[in-house]
Structure formats: structure tokens, C-alpha cells
Specification:
The complex is a heterodimer of chains A (349) and B (635).
Chain A lengths: L1 H18 L17 E5 L9 E5 L4 E2 L2 H6 L7 E7 L2 E6 L4 E6 L5 E5 L5 E8 L2 E6 L7 E6 L5 E6 L4 E7 L2 E6 L8 E6 L4 E7 L4 E6 L5 E5 L3 E3 L5 E3 L4 E5 L6 E6 L12 E4 L2 E5 L2 E6 L6 E5 L4 E4 L6 E5 L7 E5 L5 E6 L4 E5 L1
Antiparallel strand pairs in A: 1-2, 1-30, 2-3, 4-5, 5-6, 6-7, 8-9, 9-10, 10-11, 12-13, 13-14, 14-15, 16-17, 17-20, 18-19, 20-21, 22-23, 23-24, 24-25, 26-27, 27-28, 28-29
Chain B lengths: L1 H19 L9 H5 L12 E4 L1 H4 L7 H8 L3 E4 L6 E4 L8 E5 L2 E2 L20 E5 L4 H4 L6 E6 L7 E11 L3 E11 L3 E12 L4 E4 L4 E4 L5 E13 L4 E16 L9 E20 L2 E20 L5 E21 L4 E16 L6 E16 L2 E12 L7 E11 L3 E12 L3 H5 L11 E16 L3 E23 L2 E25 L2 E12 L2 E5 L19 E11 L2 E10 L2 E4 L2 E3 L2 E14 L2 E10 L18 E10 L1
Parallel strand pairs in B: 4-7
Antiparallel strand pairs in B: 1-6, 2-3, 4-5, 6-7, 8-9, 8-34, 9-10, 10-13, 11-12, 13-14, 14-15, 15-16, 16-17, 17-18, 18-19, 19-20, 20-21, 21-22, 22-23, 23-24, 24-25, 25-26, 25-27, 26-28, 28-29, 29-32, 30-31, 32-33, 33-34
Classes of the chains: A mainly beta (349), B mainly beta (635).
Chain lengths: 349, 635
């Protein structure tokens, strides 16, 4: 009997040792995640598989938040903004913003009590602004203290506040409409924290960029309405517009004869005097010439330009292949591609 | 690895040959008394039996509760009242068969069986056949088989039982049983009704808020009727009917905003007829079963109650079997069986009604003599869609030290056909899938260190290994998921069990405990579909370590116990895990007998420590749950 006990014990311990294994982490503790780029991956709706993918020359980590913190990030990761060595990750359908140290990616806090958060910008030395609202209710820009992560102010804006941009002590908020519709840009005075004016633009202003002349370029997608049987009616086509930040006047750069083939909030990019936008391909508009030229074939979900190299990064979310980001030179020559998490919508440099 | 398998096979064959050398000339029919009518040979298999004495205290509970609290099973539960799947030894729930009187209940559309719809009071015993020989049960037994058994009480009796349960979160359950009969005729009827609001508070660790689950109400009922007739000394008939209906709302997952209202309605009708003729050395069994399942799923917007999605599933299965058992000698019994089944499904997401035909033939031989029990069997199955290999099984068990040490071993070939959803789901299914195939082997030993009225200690150790090729996994390709024969999975599990107890005066203290070490992993993968990080990766939802401890104390009419379950972290996708957890449950029970009526009062508490845990990713399970039961047994 004793012999059998010994054999049994030996077999158990041996099996446990034999089957145990470990893997080396490819990220060095000193460098952390400081030397690379991040990709915002929305994930599938109601699947809690939204992620931030990390890419450097040798490594792709599809879900760096989960890898570091051991928890899923949540449902529909909308955006990520780096402010003062902290990354603010907006998780739209989980109604929160995760705050992480951008080097270690360890969670340092969570902003909750949000209903439909979209984007974050730096508002002051100790404050950030968060656009929030689904178009029907809670359409606010919230001001959050970065130390306490608590709301300090709520500023009512148009329906579905989305992309934001700061210039000359003004916060420009594109009211994209959320589940409803809108066609305005709210301008918030950053001193008084009030809406100083509302600028009317095309229907569904989705994305904005500041150009070299400090004008705001706005991509308006155009409006489609639906009846009770979900039959669509096109009310207006897309417009690419420019807001003069001195007199707040609006001029149209391009009036499309259709609605652009993109529905993300990241269909516009700007680098080195060139506007890039997504439609049935990637188009570029340079200088005073309003006629676009096709630079990259293919339909993409999001576009960003590397501010250092001016490379164009597009995100691909085709239905039947891996979701990825593709790096192109400014002239449209393909450089590299990286498989990421589900539904990448933006690249953060 | 193949060499190892062949060596073990040769060893088993040698033992069988040795065993056949011991055959006596005189013919005795001891096997009739030992084998349950129609039961397959299972020599060398690891089996756990929960008999009526165990099931009695779970009268209003489902199979899910029994398995959760009595051993180490991998349960994937979407919450109280919602669907639950069970899997054994690291295999998936579609690789673990739930069998009723020998008929598989696993859904032909989804592959698994919702064990939250199995009322325990309907059955006389539940047997967990961990080894699950494919030659006996057919497709989908890599993880084993859970057998639901309804054996008649062949004596004059009349008994009835009613039970009422009131639990947390607005839970109410009503159960009743009526059983009567004599040596020639028996009847057992059961009825179970359960209803719950089920909106429990929980901590959403993704949204990082304490919140309340919404839209998770359910109600359902189950009714069964079993009839048994012994027409004469040779001929007997058993008939069973089982109807279940349930409607449940599907709550939003953790971490998401509840924009939708989802509802699922399930109905299931199951029936069988079994006729058995026992004449001299023959036992001839003719059985038929008809199983019909239906499910309706709806999804509406919360704000406008506008229907967004509606899908329905209807499936039917008709099975006929003819089995002939011949008692060849006092030690040797032979079985021959043929089966014919038709499976059909009408699903809104298939393009058309799909039908599959299966024919199978099985031959088996058992040798049984005092300390030795062994069996070999082969099965050939013909499917209207696939080529299925010849299956074989060999098993042996031997009392190396009589009543002290039992050694057992078995091995064989197994397979699993793709489910209808795998094949035909519009746009997502893959009609080119091949059946999973592979082999498993197992060695084990049971040691009885002490077994007296006053003290007992029994331990069991088992090692199980299996190789599954053409493993079917749903792989994301962009936003769409498609099932593919992507991998070879290896199942490796070491299981330790112990039962001990002692009785001093009127106090009995006992304990069951178990520890599993599971190294089931992906061994090989189609490189065009997945990166190398998948190779060697642990199978999803399989904990590396699992532990349960179940001490109990009994004093006169009082009975109290504690149940502790620990599961280490489990992967739900490549590299991503769910946290480890330990859940503590407890119960106390008092019974009072007055003439022919016994009343039982009990209080139980589940998840006493309010542990935040999940068995399916993002589906929170309730914190502390209290339940009070009152039961009257009339004999």
C-alpha cells in the first residue's frame, strides 16, 4: 500500500512539473510601451473584445490593456488620447474611460458615470474634456479633473457630440447627431466654460482636423433618414468644409454628389498641407486645388497620418479577413501591414 | 505517442487473452442480475453514480445544480435559469453526451444539451461515465457521457412527494412526484415548475460599478411520465415521455449598455418505448425514441420595442435500435446492436430543411469473472454525409487486492460529427467540415483503505489522455466567425478523488474531495488560420487546477454540509483569461417522520462569500443566494 502511495504521489508531482511551462515577455520593463504606436480597436458590438493593439518594429500585441491589467477593456473602444504621459481610453458601450500610464499601460483609474462617451481632449493643466451623448439625451461636454477623475462641469452642446479640437482658447465640438442627427459645431470658451457660439455646417459633422493655416477642416457625412420599414431616403450628400477660426465663417471645399463610403468618426486626416479622406478609396486634396486625387485603392474604416513621417495609416475591417492596419508612404506606396484586434478605427502616434 | 497507445492496446489484449483462458464450462446467468437491462458493457471505465438517495435532496433542482455541487465538471452557465452546458475532462460540451435511456439528447443543431432543463426528480439515478466508449454511444463522447436513468421500483409501493422552494431574487420552485406500482406495473409522474425575477446585484468589473442585472426573468416547467410493465416472465415494456417548456429573457452582458431586450423560448418533447424479451440465454431489446426540440429567439430595441431580430430552430430526431444480448457462458456475454436514426432541422438561418441519416452496427464482448472484468467492442457507422471510421474500444478492470485495490484501463477510437449549425448556418456555416476523430486512453485505480460501518476511506486516481484531430473551432475572420477543422487538440487530465467518513455514536462526519490537474491544449493548428501562439495554448474554459471539498455532518435527523469549489484561471481566447475563483456553499436540513409522512426542512446558502465570478465570459453569476425548502414525502 505504501509503495502505491509513493508511486501515486510521484506520478502526480511529475505530471504537474512536466506539463508546466512559461513564456518570456517580449516587452522590456525599461522601455515599456513608449516606443511604438497604438491602434484603437472597437471590437464587436456586445462582445467585450474592444482593445488597444500595440505595434513596434518587432512586436504586435493585440490587446495590451488585457495583457498588462488582466482584464478586458470593454465593449466598443471608441478612442484613445495621450495627455501628459497618461492615455485616456474611451470605452463607449461600457460607459467609461480607462486611464492608464502610457509607458507601463497599467490602469491608474477609471472615469465612470458617463452614458455615451466618445472623445477626450486636454482642456487645461488639470482638466480634460469628454464629449458624451447619444443624440437623444445627456448631450454634454464634461469637464473632468485629472487628479480626482471626477466631473467638475457639464456643458450642454448639440446632439451626439463627437470629435473635439482646441484652438486659440476655444474648444470646437462636432455634433455628429449620435443616434439622432445634427449639423452644428459648438464652440466652447475654455475660460468661461460656456458655449460661445454654434456654427452651422453640413449634416452629420463627423471628423475635424486643424490645417497649417489654423483653419478647421470638417468632414460632414450627409444625412439619410429611414421610415418604419427601414427604407432609406438620402436627404443630403457629404461635404468637406473649412471653418475660419478667426471669423468662424464656413466655406465648402468639396460638395460631393454622393455620401462618402465611410461611417466611422475617423474618415479624415491632415498632414503636410494635404487633406486625406476616405470614400471608395483614399483621396487627397492639396493646396488650393479642390479636385481630389486617388492615392490608395480600397475601402477603409479609419485614417491617420504620422505627424513625424507623414506616412498614411489606414485601418481595414473587411468582413471576411483579418482586421489590420496598413502603413503607406505619403505618395501611397504600401510599406507594412499589421493584424490587430477587431475593428481598428484609429492609430495613435 | 502512437507507440505508447499500441503498447497499452497490446497489454489490454494480452490481459483479455489471459482472461479468456479462465472460462468455465458451466453456463450461469449472473450477468443478468449485475447488468442493468440494456446497459452497455463498461468494464475499465471510470463511472460515478448519483443514486436516489443523493437525488432526493435535489428534488426541485436541475442537473446543473447536482453537477456543480458534487464533483468537478466544467460548467458553462449563463446564470440562474439560463442555459448551461457541461463538459468533462477538458472536452467541449458538444463533446460530452447527455444520454436518456441510451438515446443522445445533445442538440443536433448546436451539439450540446442545456442541462438547466433537466429536472433531477424525474430520474432514479444519474451516472457519469467519464470514459464514454464511442462504440456504445456513438458521436460526441470525447469528454464522456452523462446518463439519465429511470429504473422502475419493482415492488408494491405508493409514494408521493411535494416540495416548495423559495429563494433569493424572487425565485419560487414547485415540485411533485407520484410513484406507484407493484411487481408487474409501475408508474412515476413528476412535475416541476420554476419562476424567478433573477435580477440580482453584481459588481461589473469592466464598467467598474456595482449594478443590478435587468431583464433576466425566467419561468419554466417540466413534466415526465414513466411507465413500466412486466407482461410475463419473459417480456417487459418501458415507456417514457418528457415535456419541457421555458421562457427566459436574456440579460445584457457585463460591460455593455442594455439597449436591447432579448428573449428565448425553448420547448422540448422527448419520448421512448423500450420492449425487452428475456428468454433463456437471450435478451432482445427493441427501442425507439422521438425527440423534438424548438427554440424561438427574439431581439427588440428597448426604447421602441421594435423587433430587430427573430430566429427559430426546430429539430427532430427519430431513433430505432435493436439489441441482442447472448449469455455465452457464465463469464462471457456478447452484444450485437443495430441502430437507425433520422435527424432533421428546420432553422430560419438555414437555407432549407436539413436531414441526416445514420445507420450503425455494434458488436461487443464482455468477460466477467470474480476479480476481472473486461470487454472489447467495435462499431461501424454509416452517415449520409460523412465517412466514419471503424470504432473500437477495449477496457479491463481487475481487483488486484480483493476489495482493496482495483486497477482499470481502457482505450478506444472516438469521433464527433459537425452540428447542423456548423454546417448550414447561412453565410457563417461551413458545409465542407469533416468529423472530428481521435482516440483516448485511460488508466486508473481505486483504493479502499478502510470500509466498515464506522469508518471508511476510499481514494481514486485516474489519468486520461485523448487526441482529437480535425477539431472544429469557430474562428474569427474579420467580423464573421466560421467553423473550421483547424486543430489537433490533446486532452490530458489527472484526477484524484477521496471519500472518507466516520460514525461515532449518533454523529456521522464525512467528506468528499477531488482535485483535477488538466493540461488539455491545442497541439497542432492550420497555420493559415492562426498564428503560432495558439500551439500549446490551453483549451478554452478549461481550468488547469480544479478542487472541490464537501464535508458534511449528520446527527439523528439533522444534516449539514459545506461545499467548496475552486477553479483556477480559464482562457476564453488566445492569451486572455477569466480570473480564478473559489465558491463556498452550505446547507442544513432537518427531517421529521410522523407515521407515513416525512417532512424535510432545509436552508441553503450559495456563494456565501459573495465571490465575483463567471463560468461564461461576461455573464455575471449571482452573489449570495439563499434558499428555503420544505418537502413532504408520503409513503
Amino acid at each position: 500500500m505504501k509503495t502505491i502511495t509513493k508511486i501515486t504521489t510521484t506520478v502526480c508531482i511529475g505530471a504537474i512539473l512536466l506539463f508546466s511551462s512559461c513564456k518570456e515577455d517580449p516587452i522590456s520593463p525599461e522601455k515599456g510601451y513608449s516606443d511604438g504606436i497604438f491602434v484603437v480597436c472597437e471590437g464587436n458590438f456586445n462582445s467585450n473584445d474592444g482593445a488597444i493593439s500595440f505595434i513596434d518594429d518587432t512586436t504586435v500585441i493585440k490587446d495590451v490593456y488585457n495583457k498588462v491589467n488582466g482584464l478586458p477593456l470593454g465593449d466598443i473602444v471608441q478612442s484613445m488620447t495621450i495627455i501628459d504621459n497618461k492615455a485616456y481610453i474611451v470605452v463607449n458601450n461600457s460607459q467609461k474611460i480607462e486611464v492608464v500610464d502610457v509607458t507601463t499601460f497599467k490602469s491608474v483609474g477609471t472615469i465612470t458615470k458617463l452614458s455615451f462617451p466618445r472623445y477626450v481632449v486636454k482642456f487645461s493643466a488639470n482638466e480634460i474634456a469628454v464629449s458624451n451623448g447619444d443624440g437623444f439625451e445627456n448631450n454634454y461636454v464634461y469637464i473632468i479633473n485629472t487628479k480626482t477623475l471626477a466631473k467638475t462641469d457639464s456643458i450642454a452642446v448639440g446632439a451626439g457630440p463627437n470629435k473635439m479640437l482646441t484652438y486659440n482658447n476655444n474648444l470646437f465640438v462636432a455634433n455628429m447627431g449620435g443616434w439622432s442627427n445634427d449639423k452644428t459645431i459648438s464652440v466652447i470658451n475654455m475660460q468661461t466654460k460656456t458655449v460661445s457660439r454654434t456654427i452651422e455646417v453640413g449634416d452629420l459633422p463627423a471628423d475635424m482636423e486643424l490645417d497649417n493655416a489654423n483653419n478647421i477642416i470638417v468632414m460632414c457625412y450627409g444625412l439619410t433618414t429611414y421610415d418604419q420599414n427601414w427604407t432609406p431616403t438620402i436627404v443630403s450628400n457629404s461635404q468637406l468644409q473649412k471653418i475660419n477660426t478667426s471669423d468662424f465663417s464656413v466655406t465648402t471645399i468639396k460638395q460631393f454628389d454622393h455620401q462618402v463610403a465611410n461611417f466611422s468618426s475617423n474618415g479624415l486626416a491632415y498632414a503636410n498641407g494635404t487633406i486625406y479622406y476616405l470614400d471608395d478609396a483614399v483621396y487627397a486634396i492639396s493646396g488650393a486645388n479642390a479636385n481630389p486625387t486617388k492615392v490608395i485603392d480600397g475601402v477603409y474604416y479609419g485614417i491617420d497620418c504620422n505627424p513625424k513621417t507623414n506616412d498614411i495609416w489606414v485601418t481595414y475591417t473587411g468582413a471576411a479577413s483579418s482586421h489590420k492596419v496598413i502603413q503607406y508612404s505619403p505618395s501611397g506606396t504600401k510599406q507594412k501591414e499589421y493584424v490587430t484586434g477587431f475593428y481598428p478605427n484609429a492609430v495613435v502616434f | 505517442m502512437k507507440q505508447k497507445f499500441y503498447c497499452i492496446s497490446i497489454g489490454l489484449v494480452c490481459l483479455c487473452v489471459y482472461a479468456f483462458g479462465q472460462i468455465h464450462d458451466t453456463v450461469r446467468l449472473d450477468s443478468v442480475a449485475v447488468c442493468r437491462n440494456g446497459e452497455y458493457f463498461w468494464g475499465g471505465a471510470k463511472r460515478e453514480v448519483f443514486d436516489n438517495s443523493v437525488l432526493q435532496s435535489y428534488a426541485s433542482a436541475s442537473l446543473q445544480t447536482l453537477l456543480q455541487q458534487n464533483s468537478l465538471f466544467i460548467l458553462k452557465s449563463y446564470g440562474n435559469g439560463l442555459s448551461s452546458g457541461v463538459s468533462l475532462r477538458g472536452a467541449g460540451s458538444s463533446q460530452t453526451q447527455i444520454s436518456w435511456e441510451g438515446f443522445s439528447l445533445n442538440s443536433i443543431t448546436m451539439g450540446d444539451m442545456d442541462i438547466s432543463l433537466v429536472p433531477l426528480l424525474s430520474f432514479s439515478s444519474i451516472t457519469i461515465d467519464h470514459s464514454g466508449f464511442a462504440t456504445n454511444y456513438g458521436s460526441g463522447t470525447f469528454g464522456g457521457v452523462v446518463e439519465l436513468v429511470s429504473e422502475p421500483i419493482k415492488q408494491k409501493h405508493t409514494s408521493a412527494s411535494v416540495q416548495y422552494t423559495q429563494g433569493s431574487f424572487g425565485t419560487r420552485k414547485y415540485a411533485s412526484v407520484l410513484s406507484f406500482g407493484n411487481q408487474r406495473f409501475q408508474s412515476k409522474s413528476t412535475l416541476l415548475y420554476a419562476k424567478s425575477n433573477n435580477n440580482f446585484p453584481y459588481y461589473d468589473y469592466i464598467r467598474k460599478i456595482h449594478t443590478q442585472r435587468v431583464n433576466s426573468e425566467y419561468q419554466g416547467f417540466s413534466v415526465t411520465q414513466t411507465l413500466f410493465a412486466q407482461w410475463n416472465q419473459y417480456f417487459q415494456t418501458k415507456v417514457g415521455v418528457w415535456y419541457t417548456a421555458r421562457t427566459c429573457n436574456i440579460p445584457p452582458i457585463m460591460g455593455s449598455t442594455p439597449y436591447f431586450v432579448e428573449n428565448q423560448q425553448d420547448t422540448s418533447f422527448k419520448s421512448f418505448v423500450s420492449n425487452q424479451l428475456i428468454y433463456k440465454k437471450f435478451q432482445i431489446t427493441v427501442k425507439s425514441a422521438y425527440i423534438s426540440d424548438a427554440q424561438l429567439y427574439t431581439k427588440e430595441t428597448k426604447q421602441y420595442a421594435k423587433m430587430l431580430q427573430q430566429s427559430s430552430i426546430e429539430s427532430n430526431r427519430l431513433v430505432h435500435t435493436l439489441k441482442i444480448r447472448r449469455y455465452l457462458s457464465s463469464c462471457i456475454t456478447g452484444d450485437a446492436e443495430v441502430q437507425y436514426s433520422i435527424n432533421s432541422a428546420n432553422v430560419s438561418n438555414y437555407k432549407q430543411v436539413q436531414t441526416e441519416y445514420t445507420k450503425a452496427g455494434m458488436l461487443a464482448l464482455q468477460y466477467k469473472k470474480s476479480r476481472l472484468q473486461s470487454n472489447i467492442s467495435v462499431r461501424k457507422e454509416y452517415n449520409s454525409k460523412y465517412s466514419i471510421p471503424l470504432l473500437y474500444t477495449a477496457g479491463i478492470q481487475y481487483d488486484i487486492v480483493p476489495s482493496k485495490i482495483l486497477l482499470r484501463a481502457n482505450g478506444g477510437k472516438k469521433f464527433r460529427t459537425p452540428t447542423f449549425n456548423d454546417l448550414y448556418w447561412e453565410q457563417w456555416g461551413n458545409p465542407h467540415l469533416l468529423p472530428e476523430r481521435g482516440h483516448t486512453w485511460e488508466i486508473g485505480s481505486q483504493q479502499t483503505w478502510k470500509h466498515t460501518q464506522k469508518m471508511w476511506l476510499v481514494t481514486d486516481v485516474a489519468y486520461y489522455e485523448g487526441y482529437i484531430t480535425n477539431r472544429i473551432l469557430w474562428i474569427p475572420q474579420g467580423a464573421q466567425w466560421h467553423p473550421m477543422n483547424v486543430a489537433q487538440a490533446t486532452i490530458q487530465v489527472l484526477e484524484l478523488r477521496a471519500k472518507t467518513g466516520t460514525t461515532i455514536h449518533n454523529v456521522t462526519v464525512s467528506s468528499n474531495m477531488g482535485l483535477d490537474y488538466n493540461n488539455s491544449h491545442i497541439a497542432k493548428i492550420n497555420s493559415s488560420l492562426q498564428t503560432d501562439e495558439a500551439i500549446g495554448h490551453r483549451l478554452y474554459y478549461v481550468p488547469k487546477y480544479a478542487l472541490f471539498l464537501q464535508p458534511a455532518i449528520q446527527y439523528k435527523s439533522w444534516n449539514a454540509g459545506v461545499h467548496l469549489l475552486y477553479n483556477s484561471k480559464r482562457y476564453y481566447s488566445i492569451g486572455n483569461t477569466m480570473n480564478q475563483y473559489a465558491v463556498l456553499n452550505a446547507h442544513i436540513e432537518y427531517s421529521l417522520t410522523n407515521k407515513k409522512i416525512t417532512s424535510v426542512y432545509s436552508v441553503s446558502a450559495q456563494n456565501i462569500t459573495n465571490t465575483v465570478y463567471e463560468s461564461v465570459r461576461s455573464y455575471p453569476l449571482p452573489g449570495r443566494y439563499l434558499e428555503c425548502k420544505i418537502q413532504f414525502l408520503i409513503n
